[in-house]
């Protein structure tokens, strides 16, 4: 299992792997070429809250080979607390790097799992439009039916991908990643949240400059307040309470 050296985020006490987009893609390329297993995840305040709340979620993240920084608050805490020379480029969401697989040398087959049938078709069409040599496979995952895991594993096995992207939302996607990892021989498995829906256009994709400014959450909240209000407005307070109560 490939594990890239990490840094501990002050105050939050979680480990992350600060990588730029091209650095992450290079690690994915090398793991796929050498058929080394690697789990790729991303940490933001939402995932940190789940890390403290759910033991199985924490176990998944502790086994991940690369946990990229997917939130400006984490980057800011490392800049201040560790005084390491990290730049805004070290904050990368899944939408920042997934398209890069299209041009990644040695990556020929990629499977996407997640979204409604319409959303799955949309992201497949988008990624195919990028050109390149990748043979993309898209499998819908919404609504998710746990009893279909063997059928889905069989479809992925037939495609024989080097990279599997699972965009199902936390913590479901991490649970599915573990279930599929035990059934398949896929070198790289990455959990990518809503990136597949966003790249396919079925969810709004924030202008990338807002991510660098730490304001992507505000864009997403404004566009989907009913679904995201609890995550962005209430969860940070719950996380603060957990941090104060920890030993």
From TrEMBL:
GO terms for molecular function: hexosyltransferase activity. Transmembrane segments: none annotated. The keyword Glycosyltransferase applies. This is N-acetylglucosaminyldiphosphoundecaprenol N-acetyl-beta-D-mannosaminyltransferase. InterPro entries: WecG_TagA_CpsF. Signal peptide: none annotated. Pfam families: Glyco_tran_WecG. The keyword Glycosyltransferase applies. Keywords: Glycosyltransferase, Transferase. It comes from the Bacteria.
């Amino acid at each position: 299992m490939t594990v890239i050296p990490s840094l501990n985020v002050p105050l939050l006490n979680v480990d992350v792997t600060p990588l730029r987009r091209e650095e992450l893609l290079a690690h994915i390329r090398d793991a796929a070429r050498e058929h080394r297993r690697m789990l790729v995840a991303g940490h933001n305040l939402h995932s940190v809250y789940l890390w403290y709340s759910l033991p199985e979620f924490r176990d998944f993240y502790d086994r991940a080979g690369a946990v990229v920084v997917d939130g400006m608050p984490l980057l800011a805490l490392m800049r201040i607390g560790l005084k390491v020379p990290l730049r805004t480029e070290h904050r990368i969401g899944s939408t920042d790097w997934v398209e890069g697989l299209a041009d990644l040398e040695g990556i020929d087959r990629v499977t996407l799992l997640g979204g409604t049938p319409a959303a799955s078709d949309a992201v497949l069409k988008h990624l195919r439009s990028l050109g390149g040599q990748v043979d993309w496979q898209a499998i819908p995952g919404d609504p998710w039916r746990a009893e279909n895991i063997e059928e889905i594993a069989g479809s992925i096995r037939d495609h024989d991908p080097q990279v599997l992207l699972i965009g199902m939302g936390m913590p479901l996607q991490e649970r599915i990643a573990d279930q599929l990892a035990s059934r398949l021989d896929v070198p790289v498995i990455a959990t990518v949240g809503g990136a597949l829906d966003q790249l396919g256009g079925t969810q709004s994709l924030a202008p990338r400059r807002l991510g660098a400014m730490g304001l992507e959450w505000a864009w997403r909240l404004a566009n989907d307040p009913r679904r995201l209000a609890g995550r962005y407005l209430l969860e940070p307070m719950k996380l603060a309470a957990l941090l104060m109560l920890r030993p």
